[in-house]
C-alpha cells in the first residue's frame, strides 16, 4: 500500500491507472478512509462516491470491522448448503471481488460479527463479539490504522448505526473513539505519531428521503412505487433529512456501485429492492450520495458537494 509520505504518480482506479487530479496543501495525494461493519457495507453505502474519488486519484481505504460471519444468506440463488457451511470464507471472497471492482485497499479489523438478535426479549449477543467490546479498547487497532494512513477524511455511521444493527452502532462508537484517540499524542504513543483527522462524516446514503425521492420519480413515469412498503414501515423523518450537509455527485459511478454490490452474491439479490428503480431514473432523481459533516478542522462551510472541500487544491503541473 502506498504511504502518505510517498505519493504516487499513478494510482489504481476503477478506470485503470489515473493521476491525482487534486492534492492537499503539502502536494500529497488525498486520502479517504471508510469504516464499515461488515463485508458488503462498503458497496451498499457510498460506493459510487468511492468509485468517483478513486477515478480522481484519491487513495481510498476501507476498514471492515467484522467478517460478517453471522449474516444471513439473502439471495435465494445462493442459499445452498455448501455456501451456508462456509459463509465466512465465501464472504471474504465476495469482499475481494468488490474491492477489486472499486479499486480500493481494504483492511480487516478482525472482530467477530455480533449478529442481529431477534425475539422478545432479545437474546444476548455472542460473548466476545464486536458489539460487546469496550469501544475505547476496541478502537486501538483503528487508531493504529489512522495514525499510519493519516486520512484527510473518515466516514462512518451515525449514532443510530444507519439502522439499529449492534455492529453498526458499535462501528460508530469505535470510529469516533479512534478518531479522538488518534489525535491525542498522550494516548498509546506506541501506535504511531498522533494524527488529527481534518474531516469526519456520517454516511447518510440510504435515508428514507432517498427512497421516497426514487419512489415518486418512478410513479411520475407511470411505474409502480417499488418502495411503498418500505416507506410505510419507515416513513421520511424530515428532521433526520435536514442533517445532510454534503451531497456528492456520483451518478456516473452508479454502474460501478452496482457491480460491487452484485459481487456480494450472498447478500444481494439481483431481483431484489436494490435494483428496483431503473438506473436512468435514479441518475436523474437522486444523482448524489449524501453525508453529514460532524467534525471539521478546515475552513469548509456547508452545504457542500465534496468530501474534500477545504482540503483539496489543484495538482501543480508535473515538470
Please describe what this structure looks like.
By secondary structure, the chain is of the alpha/beta class. Helices cover 33% and strands 16% of the residues. The protein contains twelve helices and eleven strands. The strands form three sheets. Strands 6-5-4-7-8-10-9 form a seven-stranded mixed β-sheet, with helices on both faces. The chain has a two-stranded antiparallel ribbon with strand order 1-2. Helix 4 packs antiparallel against helix 11 (254-263) and helix 6 packs across helix 7 (166-182). The two termini are 25 Å apart.
What does the secondary structure layout of this molecule look like, with pairings?
Blueprint: E1 12-13, E2 16-17, E3 22-23, E4 31-36, H1 41-44, H2 47-55, E5 59-66, H3 81-85, H4 87-102, E6 105-111, H5 135-138, H6 140-149, E7 153-156, H7 166-182, E8 199-203, H8 208-220, H9 228-233, H10 238-241, E9 246-249, H11 254-263, H12 279-285, E10 288-296, E11 313-314
Parallel strand pairs: 4-5, 4-7, 5-6, 7-8
Antiparallel strand pairs: 1-2, 3-11, 8-10, 9-10
Helix pairs in contact: 4-11, 6-7
Tertiary shape? globular
The arrangement of helices and strands along the chain is: EEEEHHEHHEHHEHEHHHEHHEE
Q: Give the quaternary arrangement of the chains.
A: single chain
* Helix percent band: 25-40%
Distance between the termini: 25 Å
Uncertain segments of ≥5 residues (pLDDT<50)? 1-10
Average pLDDT figure: 93
